[in-house]
Amino acid sequence: MIKFSNKLLHDLSLILIMGVLAGCGLIYEYLLSHYAGRILGSVETAIYGMIGIMIVAMGVGSFSAKYFKSPFTAFAYLEVLVAAVGAGSVLVIASVVGAVVLLPQAIADAYSLPFDMGVSGAFITLSENLVEIFPYVVGFILGFLLGLEIPLIARVRELLHKEHLQHNTGMIYGVDYIGAGIGAAIWVLFMLRVDITMAASLTASANLLAGLFFLFRYWSFIAAPVLLLFAHLLVSVMVVLLFALGEDMLTDMSNVLYKDNVVHSESTNYQHFSITERSMKNQAPIYSLYINGRLQFSSSDEGIYHSMLVYPAMLTSARHDNILIIGGGDGLALRDVLHWQPKKVTLVDLDNQLLQFFKGSSGDSKVLPDFQQALLALNEGALSKPNVNVISGDAFIEIDRLLDEGHIYDVIIVDLPDPSHPDLNKLYSDHFYSRLGFLLAGDGVMTVQSTSPYHAKKAFLSIGKTIRSAGFTSVEQYHQNVPSFGEWGWTIATKMGRSPSARLKALPSRLPVADEWVTKGLMLAAFEFSADFFSGLSDIEVNKLGSHRLYRYHHEAWSVREGVIEK
Q1: In whole angstroms, how far apart are CA 52 and each of 46, 58, 63, 140?
Q2: Of 55, 81, 292, 445, which residue is 20 to 30 A from 283 by alpha carbon distance?
Q3: How far apart are CA 68 and CA 80, in angstroms?
Q4: What is d(CA 439, CA 421) in angstroms, rounded to the nearest whole number?
Q5: From the CA atom positions of the chain, what is the Rg in Å?
Q6: In whole angstroms, what is the distance from residue 413 CA to residue 323 CA?
Q7: Which SS3 state, helix, strand or coil, does residue 255 take?
Q8: What b-and-e string marks burial along 478-493, b requiring 16 or more CB atoms within 10 Å of the CB?
């Protein structure tokens, strides 16, 4: 009876340890995938690539476990190593990426080269290529270590039972799957809301506690346990330092990645966004918004982008009483719409934390920091206006509710990020545009941001062709240079009557609502393209719901242009 009880206690101990470690392992996977996507600027590639590489590495680790003679000693030392690598992986990646970004400037300084002389060459190119691989190398190392855990713990259990256990593998894997599921829930419900270095530190802390429990529980089976205890203390100190100082260190490294000072960095349930500040002599600072490493706007020239997005639609619509904006959580398109004094504006954006930040209610302090006050001045407090209804939710779902409630809009403005992720692709589909058509008044106008006609021509053309296939009778595309982005494009569509450009031509030269960046002549010129620009349109596919055609067009175009910092 006593012997059976000891076996049961051993099993309960190992189940507890393995469950904790399984949860930690899954969080490490998500954490590295999340961060790799942030710094490499290709979220979908980084996430799927990192998870795939870590799974392969875990398989290699499982094969390698047989080479350790003592599973007790190997497992005990393994957990200290996993905690150290897991806790420090983000900062190590950030350090290497930052060093490569600074390398050209360091070479220029060393040889006193002119500041405007770019440093390039095979070595710089090789360094940049290697740094894009480096996060996956770290992921492989951590995955390899995680892959050792299950075979070692299975051997430990059989040695404790002193017999071959018929269902040993099933029990260990069952605990692993359940623990991983709990880890996934913790990641979604909690870890996504905290700083990434804090998430890494908390996960490593759980790892260390499980390792310490194993150490004290099986002290007599482990070689050099005192040395291992000392290693736990050293790693614990490292984890505490990372918990306290890690985010500040990461911010300093982000300053290198973004070229400007990062004054705000926040992870939400859906994305990571950063605000950077560039100090200008005798001028107001320039603020920029990055989402998942991609530039969304710069305060220096966002007016060009938003004027070209908003004004053609507002000018050519018969009325401006009821307006719908899809996306635009920064409130900048909304600001320009409000200049037309509409009766009501509805804005739908997925990320409530981003909305609250640009509304000025995201912090506990009554006094907002200077950078946030500057951004609220930039959007003129648009998100807090009484005639604005802000809906936090997935536009793909929310427009069904708007349809059910019978809403009709004079103008619809779609200000979404580029279709750089499969989840965004559905918001550029024929199905989505068709439903927006039902929300648009017969004499209304819809405009859609449509990526770059220069850098991503096929994606740009596909957006226009997809909108046309959704039932809009007149679809035109136009473009303008936005210094922060380069050549950028938009699509404007109506359901009946004259084309938008024809309506613009019929307007008087003096615009009813003055704007700093647009004139009638400038807008009409924006509809002009080179003679053969649309010659290959017949070969461009419509982005049907579920096809991911536009996502592939966009990814193929930008993948050759994306660097470590931005696209």
Answers
A1: 10, 10, 17, 10
A2: 292
A3: 16
A4: 26
A5: 28
A6: 8
A7: helix
A8: bbbebebbeebbbbbb
For domain 304-559, give the fold: Rossmann fold (3.40.50)
Q: Quote the CA–CA distance of 181 and 304 in Å, as a whole number.
A: 47
Residue 286 CA to residue 518 CA, distance in Å, equals 22
The secondary structure element, H or E, covering residue 24 is: helix 2-40
- Respond yes or no: is residue 415 known to be catalytic: yes
pLDDT tens-place values along the chain, 567 residues long: 334 457 888 889 999 999 999 999 999 998 888 888 766 655 667 778 889 999 999 999 999 999 999 999 999 999 999 999 999 998 888 888 777 766 766 666 666 666 555 566 676 677 777 778 888 999 999 999 999 999 999 999 888 887 777 777 788 889 999 999 999 999 888 887 788 889 999 999 999 999 999 999 999 999 999 999 999 999 999 999 999 888 888 777 766 666 678 888 887 877 778 899 988 777 889 999 988 778 899 999 999 999 999 999 999 999 999 999 999 999 999 999 999 999 999 999 999 999 999 998 754 445 788 899 999 999 999 999 999 999 999 999 999 999 999 999 999 999 999 887 777 889 999 999 999 999 999 999 999 999 999 999 999 999 999 999 999 999 999 999 999 989 999 999 999 989 999 999 999 988 889 888 899 999 999 999 999 999 989 999 999 988 888 988 988 886 655 443 333
Residue 138: which of 28, 44, 237 has the closest Cα? 28
Class of domain 2-230 (CATH, top level): mainly alpha
Amino acid (one-letter) located at 40: L
| Options 336, 349, 415, 418, the catalytic residue | 415
Q: What ranges do the domains of the chain cover?
A: 2-230, 304-559
Judge whether 549 and 543 are in contact, CB under 8 Å: yes
Distance of CA 44 to the CA centre of its chain: 9
